[in-house]
Amino acid sequence: MKKIDGHLHLVRNIAGLNGKGRLNALGNGQAIWDDGTVIQLIPNGSGADSFSAESAMKLMDQADVEKAVLLQGSLNGYQNYYSYQMIKKYPERFIGAFSVDPFADNAMAIVKRHVEDLGFRAIKFEISQGGGLHGYHSEKPFRLDTDPKVGEIFHYLADYPGFTVTVDYGKADQISYQPEAIANLAAHYSAMTFVVCHLSFPDYDHQNRLVAALRLFAPYPNIYSDLSAIQDIVGETDFPYPKCQAVLALAKKVLGAKRLIWGTDSPWSATFNTYGQLATYLEASDLFNESELEDVLYHNAERVYFNQQAIQAVKEASDPALQQ
């Protein structure tokens, strides 16, 4: 069955930044935060201190994954330009989103460059307190639907119908958790598509929280959720992940299969469970019928990210900075 990995990260240079400080490469796929926390960021055999497009495609090919959506995150450090280069080099394999810190002095210039020059038609906001913007902007908590700096970005993106906004807002016990903001934005910007990462961070022991968030999204057909890293979030390594199947059953009931996007959150998630396991656990369950699987594994990501506007923008993109 055809698959699109709807949540993948390339890492040319490890440049992570969050509440733990900066992330520095150690080799052998490991990295260390400034506070001394050591992590295995890259799965064995996929890179010593980087996770290249070629390493990603090797894993994808082994798992019969046709294409992938390249997202950015504070864990790896924004890899905007490397993603642009690889999308241009392998347009049949990759599409992507860029990220920006909306509180940077040149935030709007960065946004305009990535949209107008580099042809991105998706933006990723990783605002989580645990791993994103709220981890190093905690002195001023902000909401995506009311902050004027973020609002300036949305006002600009409104000129691009079909633009995709992908959001990681962290867990329910973090100040960054704001499913209400996604519902408000989806209502106001009905021509945009919104994707909530990681199935809104499900807590297996508090499933009513997930249901409450998904019910906020249900009235808005322009809100999707990706399923990446839910194994890590619920702490599960027992394939095919029965706890994950339980929360996915709730998601299917509330949102339906046509609004769920499979993804892995590799490379980091592929250090806890293999890429092959992450690519096949849905088929190993009886949660979705064949038609639903085709939607979750392929068609939904194709519709949201690999749409004609995005593909055409990539074809037309060229970087004026390299033509000077």
UniProtKB/TrEMBL annotation:
Alphabetized Pfam families for the sequence: Amidohydro_2
Residue ranges of every copy of the Amidohydrolase-related domain listed in the record: 4-305
Alphabetized InterPro entries for the sequence: ACMSD (IPR032465), Amidohydro-rel (IPR006680), Metal_Hydrolase (IPR032466)
Gene3D superfamilies hit by this protein: Metal-dependent hydrolases (3.20.20.140)
**What keywords appear on the UniProt entry?**
Lyase
The record's PANTHER family line, in alphabetical order, gives: 2-AMINO-3-CARBOXYLMUCONATE-6-SEMIALDEHYDE DECARBOXYLASE (PTHR21240), CATALYTIC_ HYDROLASE (PTHR21240:SF19)
Write the protein's name: Amidohydrolase
